[in-house]
Each structure stands twice: as C-alpha cells, then as structure tokens.
Amino acid sequence: MKNLVIVESPAKAKTIEKFLGPDFKVMSSYGHIRDLRKKDFSIDIDADFTPDYEIPAEKKDLVRQLKSAAKSAETVWLASDEDREGEAIAWHLYEVLELKPENTRRIVFHEITKPAIMKAIENPRPIDINLVNAQQARRVLDRIVGFELSPVLWRKIRPSLSAGRVQSVAVRLICEREKEIEAFSPEPYFRVNAMMEADGRALKADLPERFRTEEEALGFLESCAQADFTVADVNVKPLKRSPQPPYTTSTLQQDAHRRLGFSVNQTMMTAQKLYEDGKITYMRTDSLNLSELAMKDIAETITSRMGKEYLKPRHYHTRSKGAQEAHEAIRPTYISNSTVDGDDRERRLYELIWRRTMASQMADAQIEKTQADIEVSTGAERFRAEGEVVKFDGFLRVYRPEDGEAGQSMLPPLAAGQRLEAQEITAVQRFTLAPPRFTEATLVKKMEDLGIGRPSTYAPTISTIQSRDYVVRGEKEGEPRLYRMLSLKDGKVSGTALSENTGSEKGKLVPTDVGMVVNEFLTRYFPDILDFNFTARIEEKFDEIAEGGLGWQKEITDFYGSFHPEIDRINSLRMEHKVGERVLGTDPKSGRPVSVKICRFGPAVQIGEATDEEKPRFASLHKDQSISTITLEEALKLFDLPRKIGQHEGKDMVAGVGRFGPYIRYDGMFVSIPKDMAPETISLDEAVKLVADKREKEAQKLIKEFAELPGIQVLNGRFGPYIAFKPDGAKKTVNYKIPKGTEASSLTAADVKEIMEKQDAAPKKPARRAAKAKK
DNA sequence: CAGTGAGCGAGCTTCCGCTTGACTT
Which of A437, A433, A457 is nearest to A447 (CA)? Predict the structure, then answer.
C-alpha cells in the first residue's frame, strides 16, 4: 500500500477516499484513540503531572487494524481536524501506532472538497506539539477538577454526585435563574389597543403608554367615548433586514427547537443521520465558514432559481468565545437539492438547513415601514399604528426570521389630519414577566456565549445534569390566573374577568433540591471554578501554551497549587449542619428537632439526631415538595404514612408512599394506588378491591411453567411475553426475551432452555452510562 | 417500570471532548 490517510470520522473517510484515487487508503480513528484511564485519577502529581494514558477496550481492535495498515504503508497521512483535540489525536496516533518521522505527514483541511484536500497533501507540516500540549493541559485540568471536586460532594452531600468545569456552571445558570424567578413578583398593568376604521378599511392601533391601575385604564376609556381620533402624522421610512449566518451546532439546536420542536438530542441524532447519508456537512462545528466551492454552488442555485437580484455573497466571521473552526458551517452538501428522502424529521431538518444556508447568501429584504400617530381629542395620549410593506423580499423568500416584527400587516393609506372611527377600544390587564426558565436550546446558547463546552458536548452535558438529578424537565402545567379586560364599544365601557395560564414549567429546565444544594455548596466554597469566566480565563492560558509561550506543566502546577489546598481545607471543615439543611422546628410529640436535608436517597425529613439514644426517624419528601419551601406541618404529615388502614382476612392492610408512588401493602405484595385515590384517605374497601384486581392480573401473568425447569416461568409482561428465571436462593430474577414470531404459549421446556442458553452465550453489550445506572 | 418500597456496610461513584455503535425490549 502506498498511502494511508487517517481522519476522525468514518463518513469523512468514505468521501475523501473517492477524491484521492486508488493510491490512497483512508481509515478513521473514530475520534480519540487514547485517554486518561477511566477509573483512576491517572495523573502523577509528583512527576510533573504526567498523564497515564490507555487505549480503551472498545478501541483496541481498531488500533490493531490501524497499526497493521500503517506498517504496510509507504506514507501515513494524519488528517485529523485542525484544532486542539485534532492535533492531540494526531499525536496519540503517532505514538500509539509507532510511526516514523520520515514517512509520517500531518495535513489539515477545513472543507471536504477535492481542491482543499489536494492542497493539504501538497502542504504537510510537522505535528504541532505546543497545540498538543494545550490539549493535554485542558484534559488534565478537567480531570483534576472533576475527580477532586466530585468526592467532596460525596462526603458532604451525597454519594455518586458529580462536579466539573462545564456541568457545574450549567447547573449554576439554571439555579440562579430559578432564584430570580422565585424572587420575582409580577406587577399588573393595563395595555390599550384599538380597532379603528379609515374610509371603511380596518386598522389596529396601540397605545404606547401603559396604565398602572384599572381606575386609570377605565378613566382613559371613558374619556375616549366622547373623543375624536385624528391622524397627527404619518412617517414612512425604508428598512433593511439582513439574513443570519449559516448554522453552527448551537444555532441549529436553537432553531430546530423553536421551529420544529426538536430536543437538542433529536436535532443531533437527525443531523448525524443526514451527515452519514452524505446530505449535509459535519454537524458538530462552531464555524460560520462556507467553502469557496459551496459559495459558488449556492450562488448558482440562487441565480438560476430566483434571479441574480436575489444573490449577495457574504462571508461571516464568528464572534463566539473559544471557537476553533476546524470545519465548515452546517450546510447541504448539494445545495441544488432543496429536499431529501428520509423520515419526517430528516426531511424537516434538512429543509431548515437548506433554507438558512440559501438565505445566508441572499440579498437584504427591503421593507417600507409606516408609522402613524393618532391624536385623541380628549387627552394628550396618542395611539400608534404600524404597518410594513415588503418592497423586495430578498432572503425572506426562503427563510423568515422567527422573532421580530416580520409579518406585520399593511396599513390602509393614511394622511395627516384624516379622521378615524374607533370601533372598539380595549384595555387588557397584563403582568410583568419574570425572566424565562432555560430550555435545553437556550441553555446551549448561554453556554456558547460564555465559551463553556464544545459543539460535541452541548447535548451530552444537558443529559448529564439531568441524569445526576440536578435538573429536570418541568412537567407542571402552571396555574390559572384571573385578569381583567375593559372594553369600550358603542359608547359604553364594560368589564369582564378572564382567565389565563401562568407559570407553566413544561419542557423548561427546573433545578431539583439536590441541584440547588450542590450549587449553593460549590458557589460558596469553590467560587473560582464556578465563576462564569473561569473557562474563558483558562482558555487564554491554553492559547499561550499553544503558541509556545508557556509550558503546560507549569500552568497546571500553578492551578493545582491554588486549587488542591482548597479541596483539603473544605474536606476538613466540620459542619454543624449538613449542607443545605434547614431546621423546621420541633416535633410536638417527641420534642425532638425536625429538619430537612439531602439524605442518601434524596431530600428527606429527619426527626431527632443521630447522637440521640433513640434513632432518628426519616421520611422522603414527595416529588412536588421542596426543601426550601416545605413547612413543619407538611413535614410532620409525611410521618403519617405508612398507615394501617385495617385488617382483611386476618392480615394488615397498609398504605404508604414509596419510590414508585403511593402503594398498598398486603400479605407481602405491593399494589400501586391509582391517581384518583390517596394513601391518606383510601378506605379499606377500596384497598381490598385494588388487591383483588392485582391478584387477578397476576393470575393472567403466568403463561407457562415446567416441572423439569424449577424457577423458570414464561410470563406476560409490560412489553409482551418473556422468560423469567430466578436461580435458587437468588434475590433477583434474570429475564430473557422470546424471539420474534414465537408463540409463547406453545413453548416447550426444550425451547426455553435453548433460548436461554443462546442469550447467555451472546456477548453482552458494553454497559451504557445512562440514567438507568442509578439505584 | 420485564419489579418495586432504604437504613447492615464493602466498595463504588466522578471529569471533558473526539467519534459512532447496536439496540427498540
């Protein structure tokens, strides 16, 4: 083999191989091939922070293949991305594959086009060890922060918690926003608008002033009853609107959320599919750049479809902090395809990308904005009517901005001095708005603004803070709120009370008690790490390392020198109360103190102290309760459960609330209590019925068992029939799936045995680190 | 969420950034 080219992504490898011809074999590293060992700290502090790298098990096979390919190649071309991580990947490849300097070349290209790649091949350079060292500094710092901070949380708050340079700041943003919302009290005001008529044509006008009270609003409406309305002046001015740049990961996530209702994860999965199918360019990017070739194609498409007056080639420059711009912006690979095959999501996301890309190279929209002020004869206030006429649609032809005034209607022709007829004037009560909770997409935007996280980590970070129980996607619908509406029609003012929904948390990111407590703790004791500018500041240091002006170990030594003593200090602090603990008062029955805090299994109430003679009693908070708001009464009420409802056939019937919600316990079995009943009030009769229903269901559950296979049952489960096996004396059952197309009721003992053996022999898939890992 | 409802206590948990798997029970 003559040439081996190694890139990071297999989809990229496939494309490049086509450009390069038969003398080149192109393989992929699938990202990093080596990292710090997963479990241990893996940094030798005493040996100048020497990292202990390993090839993860799942990469061993790949590395073997790369190594043998490299051995038989005359020249190896390391073509990983041109950024810090890419340079490190090249270096790790060089080391691990034991490459030789004389036949190794490092090349880079920002766009996957034949000329760009040919040019790269003609301009190889050595591996930039300074850039590699900047990556090592980044990697080592993140490990130090994460692996020293997290254990502090285990000791002081709860096991298995996590903290890190990125996730902890993300949680902080959400917690602080929540505190702003809690501290906010909405102020009512009245907003007035009018439906008017000019020579038989309707127009809408608003009053720029707001009224603070209903009395003031009423007074104004009443004064309007006798008033004349006259156009005072009409102001027409041209307005230019320009398109937005093409998508990056972050803006695509935001726009797909707003316009298509996609979660950040959905967007990334869909984009990944489009990328693998060769329909769009790489989807994890912070670059606004379009290749010359793409610009040319887009220009041609615009010209041929819409005419050259719609074309305006534009180059965009990124403003985002820490952008590394190793790729292009996200764009269609072939702009002439305005749609693609695929499922619904793929088609919609593609179309969005196509529109935004096209628009980014199109002419400004020319708009004529008309503004008319309307005098009220009885007072100084003036109504204002606004209208827009699009003189030339430009980029609006393919992409409409979501927010903003686009779409305002036209006004009928108006002239100064013209009299208008008021049809109806209404004053509607509104309320000042608290700052909005973050959605996944707006959190990503904020993180990008702060330079925290990278395109490849936005979606995973959002998953992490949710799987750690720091943050949940809100489910509360909000509450109805009454508001007043006053209306002036036919000379009479009438008032109505209306209701609207407010405070909905649906789909918004809401901090949990654990999230709040962890955030309070970290911001108090580690303010430097939690500072919104921490990442930006160390990025400057990493840049210096990359430029060769600073040794990476020196930088890490400095950081560790100030960070680690703080860890020791906080660990040794003896705290009288647990972090986040709130003392509610005393239990009137026992006279012992009552407090709420984060316990091993989450937020809980505790009566008494561990040092007391009698052991403390515990009760978990309900899902809708919070450490910060629960009262003593509510807390004590939690100890009313589990409650003995009575006896049935000589056995106790007990109601309680567990990890999976309200339940009835009877004769060693548990039955969930449905939503329309409560454990506090459920009657013995109701409970008996629930138990009977469950027993009946249980009876239907068993499809088959076999005398010769003890402990094995064929059962009817939530997802259909399955085989359950409980080894003798074991606590847990092991389940096996029944192959598709097999009738469960006709299974024989031999069939079952065979299914089980087959699945036992099948290789287990590597454990996924997901939310399921929790107990 | 293929069963379930803490507390014993040994041993475990944890970071960020590159990449895609093989699954839909």
Answer: A457
Is A258 within 8 Å of A448 (Cβ atoms)? no
What whole-number distance in Å separates Cα of residue A517 and Cα of residue A534? Answer: 21
Q: Could you tell me whether strands A24-28 and A3-7 are parallel, antiparallel, or unpaired per DSSP bridges?
A: parallel
Please name which of A573, A566, A577, A579 lies closest in space to residue A518, comparing C-alpha atoms.
A579
Based on the residue annotation, tell me whether A282 is a catalytic residue of this protein.
Answer: yes
Cis amide leading into A56 (omega within 30)? no
User: pLDDT (tens digit, 9 = 90+) per residue, A540-563?
Assistant: 999 999 999 899 999 999 999 999
* Structure confidence at residue A727 as a pLDDT band (50, 70, 90): low
CB of A52 within 7 Å of some strand B atom: no
Give the ranges where A184-309 is alpha helix by DSSP (H): 214-225, 249-255, 264-276, 292-306
Q: Residue closest to B18, CA→C1'?
A: A31
| Digit-coded pLDDT (tens) for A276-316 | 999 999 999 999 999 999 999 999 999 999 999 999 999 99
Query: What are A633's two structure tokens?
Result: 């009464």
Helix axes A264-276, A440-450, angle to 10 degrees: 80
Spanning CA of A663 to C1' of B8, the rounded length in angstroms is 25
> Distance, angstroms, CA A334 to C1' B7?
62
Q: Which of A555, A484, A520, A462 shows the shortest CA–CA distance to A216?
A: A484
To the nearest 10 degrees (0 to 180), the angle between helices A129-156 and A84-96 is 100
Tens digits of residue pLDDT in A339-393: 999 999 999 999 999 999 999 999 999 999 999 999 999 999 999 999 999 999 9
- pTM for the full model? 0.85
Cis peptide before A101 (omega within 30 of 0): no
Give the DSSP H or E segment for A607: strand A602-607
Distances (CA, A) of A293 to A112, A276, A284, A369, A725: 10, 21, 20, 37, 61
Which residue's alpha carbon is at the shortest distance from the C1' of B7?
A: A618
Please return the burial class of A28, using the count of CB atoms within 10 Å of its CB with bins 0-12, 13-18 and 19+: buried
Task: Mark A335-372 as b/e (b = at least 16 C-beta within 10 Å).
Answer: beeeebebeebbebbbbbbbbbbbbbbbbebbbebbeb
Q: Mean pLDDT, chain A, as a whole number?
A: 91
Contact A318, A355 (CB under 8 A): no
| Orientation of helix A167-183 relative to helix A440-450, angle to 10° | 120
Q: Which nucleotides of B are covered by protein (CB under 7 A)?
A: 1-7, 11-25
Cα(A306)–Cα(A327) distance, rounded to whole angstroms? 29
Residues 620-639 of A with CB under 7 A from strand B: 620
Q: Output the furthest CA–CA distance in chain A (Å, rounded).
A: 100
Residue A571 approaches strand B within 7 Å at CB: no
Q: Is the CB of A160 less than 7 A from some atom of nucleic acid strand B?
A: yes
Residues 239-278 in A having a C-beta less than 7 A from any atom of strand B are 272, 276
Give the residue nearest to nucleotide B4 (CA to C1').
A660
Check residues A233 and A325 and name the one with the higher pLDDT.
A233
What pLDDT, in 10s, does the model give residues A178-199?
A: 999 999 999 999 999 999 999 8
Set A189, A247, A275, A282: catalytic member: A282
What average pLDDT score do residues A655-666 get? 78
